[in-house]
Design brief:
Layout lengths: L1 E8 L3 H10 L6 E4 L16 E2 L10 H19 L4 E2 L3 E5 L5 H13 L6 E3 L1 H7 L7 E5 L3 E3 L1 H14 L3 E3 L2 E8 L4 E7 L14 E12 L5 H7 L8 E10 L10 E3 L12 E4 L5 E4 L3 E2 L13 H8 L11 E11 L12 E4 L6 E5 L5 H20 L1
Parallel strand pairs: 1-2, 1-12, 2-9, 5-14, 12-20
Antiparallel strand pairs: 3-8, 4-8, 5-7, 6-7, 10-11, 11-12, 13-16, 13-17, 13-18, 14-15, 15-16, 19-20
Helix pairs in contact: 1-5, 1-8, 2-8
The structure holds flavin-adenine dinucleotide.
Length: about 375
């Protein structure tokens, strides 16, 4: 049986950023990913925004890792030529009665240490975004955009250059603690959609790892259950996107957000100018039953146009076409409100295992900072 130091389950942005961090110090770092390539799940089905950290409760892991992750992500992108831009963004109040909430958001951002925040009036809003209907806006200069796909690939590339191994088409199916390690059962080489036992080309391998990191995204609760930990349940919340057709892209110059939903479900349907100069509208937020249900009962372009007109009154159905969707790994059940924090902790019964659960937004931004926290925890396990 192969023995390794560290095995990371999941080759999304979180798993790959952790691999890039850990392989600076340790040999024998393995990432095991069930899809044929890294970053094929939530990590590339998002808005591609490098968030600033204004939204999260002061002192929370989300606030800390978003703020630090913002600086680390920009630095990483510059060093490794990942396409990105420091665009800034506007959070817009469209009616006077929203101004108190906007001021509270400004205050929260300041409390979290986000720099450069300032409230601007209608004249400056019009100057920056002539088609936006706003009475006041919060200007957030430290927000940016990035090619999420290239970011994940760059973390993976750096990890491999430092000696890490990334194994794809490999699904972790069992975890068994031994005296000082964890025995990891892996199905290798098959199509992830094939039911167990029905694929003749699949092989089963076992690896013993001194430390196992659960970075399985939407499936982090299922992976935790493999080691007997049933502490968490992940509820997939679908975020759908629409794209503004090319002749009308000039309606938006940058990133424009409404105030976030009071129920904590999402940041609201926003406009994002991407790194390719396309304009996305979304994501929406709806609980779905299955962790692979990206497309069933999609909203129509009219649904998007109606929501989008709150910020851009002149948008019509004809300006829009449906785009992709993503699934948020939420820890808050559908019948409750609020925003849960990231969970980053050692397993209560098997201390060689670290779980990362509920890694929803701002996980793309936070990943390199989360990776530093995990490196500290791994150091204690391997000491
Ligand atoms: C609609 C939407 C918009 C978002 N917008 C932003 C944004 O603009 N900015 C931002 O910072 N964040 C954003 N996020 C959040 C961000 O995308 C996530 O926090 C981040 O991608 C989570 O990364 P991850 O590596 O934890 O998960 P994933 O990308 O899901 O990676 C987990 C990986 O684990 C693999 N896996 C699962 N089980 C197993 C197993 N048993 N064996 C082997 N492999 C396994 C999966 O195949 C997957 O590739 C958004 C999210 C959504 C859904």
């Amino acid at each position: 049986m192969d023995e390794v130091n560290i095995l990371i389950i999941g080759g999304g942005v979180v798993g790959c950023a952790i691999a890039a961090e850990l392989s600076k110090k340790w040999q024998d770092v393995f990432v095991v990913e069930r899809f044929p390539r890294v970053g094929m799940a939530t990590s590339t089905r998002n808005s591609g925004v490098i968030h600033s950290g204004i939204y999260y409760s002061p002192g929370s892991l989300k606030a800390r890792h978003c703020l630090q992750g913002n600086a680390l992500t920009f630095a990483f992108c510059e060093e490794h030529n990942v396409p990105h831009r420091r665009t800034g963004k506007l959070v817009v109040a469209t009616e006077a009665r929203e101004e108190t909430a906007l001021e509270a958001l400004n205050q929260r951002g300041q409390d979290n240490g986000v720099e450069g925040l300032r409230l601007i009036g209608p004249a400056e809003i019009r100057e920056r975004e002539p088609h936006i209907a706003g009475v006041t806006a919060l200007d957030v200069p430290s927000t940016g955009i990035v090619s999420a796909e290239e970011l994940v690939r760059a973390y993976a590339r750096v990890a491999v250059e430092q000696g890490a191994h990334i194994v794809t088409r490999a699904q972790v199916v069992s975890l068994e603690p031994t005296a000082k390690a964890i025995r990891v059962g892996i199905r290798v080489g098959e199509d992830v959609n094939t039911p167990p036992g029905q694929d003749e080309i699949a092989t089963h391998e076992t690896i013993e790892a001194r430390c196992v990191i659960n970075a399985a995204g939407l499936y982090a609760d299922d992976v935790a259950a493999l080691i007997g930990n049933h502490s968490w349940k992940i509820y997939p919340v679908r975020g759908e996107y629409c794209e503004v057709r090319s002749p009308r892209r000039s309606l938006i110059n940058g990133l424009v957000y409404p105030l976030p939903h009071a129920d904590g479900l999402s940041l609201g349907m926003h406009f994002t100018k991407t790194i390719w100069d396309t304009v996305l509208i979304g994501p929406t937020a709806r609980y779905v039953k299955d962790k692979d249900d990206y497309e069933r009962d999609r909203l129509t372009v009219s649904d998007f146009a109606e929501g989008a007109r709150i910020l851009v009154p002149e948008i019509t159905d004809d300006d829009l076409q449906l785009a992709y969707s993503g699934l948020r790994p939420k820890l808050v059940p559908p019948d409750q409100h609020g925003m849960a924090d990231f969970v980053i902790e050692s397993d209560a019964k098997v201390p060689q295992m670290i779980h990362l659960v509920g890694m929803e937004s701002p996980g793309l931004t936070a990943a390199p900072s989360v990776a530093r926290q995990v490196a500290g925890m791994v150091g204690e396990i391997l000491a």
